[in-house]
UniProtKB/TrEMBL annotation:
<protein>
    <recommendedName>
        <fullName>Glyoxalase/fosfomycin resistance/dioxygenase domain-containing protein</fullName>
    </recommendedName>
</protein>
<dbReference type="Pfam" id="PF00903">
    <property type="entry name" value="Glyoxalase"/>
</dbReference>
<feature type="domain" description="Glyoxalase/fosfomycin resistance/dioxygenase">
    <location>
        <begin position="5"/>
        <end position="130"/>
    </location>
</feature>
<dbReference type="InterPro" id="IPR028973">
    <property type="entry name" value="PhnB-like"/>
</dbReference>
<dbReference type="InterPro" id="IPR029068">
    <property type="entry name" value="Glyas_Bleomycin-R_OHBP_Dase"/>
</dbReference>
<dbReference type="InterPro" id="IPR004360">
    <property type="entry name" value="Glyas_Fos-R_dOase_dom"/>
</dbReference>
Amino acid sequence: MVSRLNPYLSFGGDARQAMEFYKEVFGGTLTLNTFGEYGQQGTPEADKIMHAMLETPSGFTLMGADTPPGMERTAGNNFSVSLSGDGDAELRGYWEKLSAGGSVSVPLEKQMWGDVFGMCTDRFGVPWMVDIIQPRT
């Protein structure tokens, strides 16, 4: 197996909804495993997501889970998920879906370095950066 590096997002109880949303955005195959499947049946966490993995047709892998019982969930601004490439229509489509219902901190528009770039936080509190690489002349 080839090694890979991908984001793993933590959620405060809405991992299922968030990962299903990302499946709507990116397409692909979503695998969800609950705490109940792995020994915590009959607990308040039984239906919460212990592990989720989305593998997309574009080769993206996004993982996530609800914060396990007894662990503190702290939100910060020390990460963003970055999407970049030269597929203008594809990346604009992702942007439209990710920014809908969220907040835009940098509108998706041409920047001083020549690319079309934007930053938003989706409705689940996950920050995204989208960079549409423009041909260099």
